[in-house]
Amino acid sequence: MSGEPLNGPVGRLFDTRFLSSIDLPQDKPVKVIIESVTREEVRSDGKGPNKPVIALHFKGKSKMMVVNKTNAGLIRKALGSPDIADWIGKEITIHATTCNAFGDPNTPCIRVIAPKRYRVGGNQHG
Questions:
Q1: DSSP 103
Q2: Residues 14, 40, 102, 112: is their CA dihedral positive or negative?
Q3: Is residue 87 part of a domain?
Q4: Kindly report the CA angle at 76 between 122 and 61, in degrees rounded to 5?
Q5: Span 88-114, mean pLDDT?
């Protein structure tokens, strides 16, 4: 519709298959159940060749989450297994935050919340 007034976060105006930090509540973590893990193709800069990424699909959710090395490690620790097959049907907790990426320490991102026994600030690591 031409001339339609817009409001809300600008990132929500773009059609995307992937979960973004703006899709999550900014004030509380979200529990999700991993339904499947797939390899997807994305264009990271909008110009270059497609790049393969690992994506989590969540039960009851339409968008998938790209998994970077940091979150993959946190999921492995949270679920106690490096084997992706063991992740299916398991619950993890994710939240919107900021991280140091692309030269900006305040880049919006999604992080998996590790159990307390794995948190760096909790003085316990296993």
A1: T
A2: positive
A3: yes
A4: 105
A5: 90
Number of domains in the chain: 1
Q: Using a cut of 0.85, tell me whether the model's pTM lies above it.
A: no
- Yes or no: say if 35 and 87 are a contact pair by the CB < 8 Å rule: no
Segments forming the whole domain that contains residue 113: 17-122
By the 8 A CB rule, do 65 and 58 touch?
yes
Does residue 112 contact residue 97 with C-beta atoms inside 8 Å?
no
> If you average pLDDT over residues 45-62, what whole number do you get?
86
Between 109 and 115, where is the model more confident? 109
Query: Is 90 exceeded by the pLDDT of residue 39?
Result: yes
Residue 64 lies in a domain: yes
Say if 58 falls within a structural domain. yes
pLDDT band at 125 (very low <50, low <70, confident <90, very high): very low
> Is residue 1 one of the residues assigned to a domain?
no
Tokens of 49: 């060749």
Count of other CB atoms within 10 angstroms of residue 4: 5
